[in-house]
Amino acid sequence: MGVGYPLDLVICTALGVDMYDCVYPTRTARFGVALTGDGGEFLRLKAHTYQTDHRAIDDHCPCQACQHYTRAKLHSLLKTNNPLASTLMTHHNITYMMTLVSNMRKAIQQHTYANFCHNFVQKHFASSQKTIPQWVHDALQAAGIPFPIP
């Protein structure tokens, strides 16, 4: 219970966990954070940067927020505390998590989950320009998915 970060879902699934219950996607949505990308990146849409950004949160996401609202419009809704903002952001984040889990399931069924983990972890830490923590290496090693330490 309480495991909800995208990285944690990927790692814990590799370790055999198959059920999750967490408020992370909905709580972060209420704070104006949109989950996005193949590596669990996120956008803080309350930031001034998005005031004039007329792109969707994620071009490949089928949710209502991505199909009908720009980052700039969501930024405006968030800054004015419009309740629609939380609804749209929540819908987006839930859609993101459902897509992530669906992709994880496909990788497991296709026996490509090790590659999925490698790609996800590399993208996750490339976006933040941080080194991959030892716990990630240790967890993947325990799951039989060795991940080389650079």
TrEMBL record:
Q: Which GO terms describe its molecular function?
A: tRNA-guanosine(34) queuine transglycosylase activity
Which domain of life does the UniProt lineage start with? Eukaryota
Identify the Pfam families for this entry: TGT
Q: What keywords sit in the KW lines? A: Zinc
Q: Tell me the SUPFAM superfamilies matching this sequence.
A: tRNA-guanine transglycosylase
Q: Name one GO biological process term.
A: tRNA modification
Which is a Gene Ontology cellular component entry for this protein?
cytosol
Tell me where in this chain the tRNA-guanine(15) transglycosylase-like domain is found. 1-125
Which NCBIfam families does the record match to this protein?
tgt_general
- What protein name applies here? tRNA-guanine(15) transglycosylase-like domain-containing protein
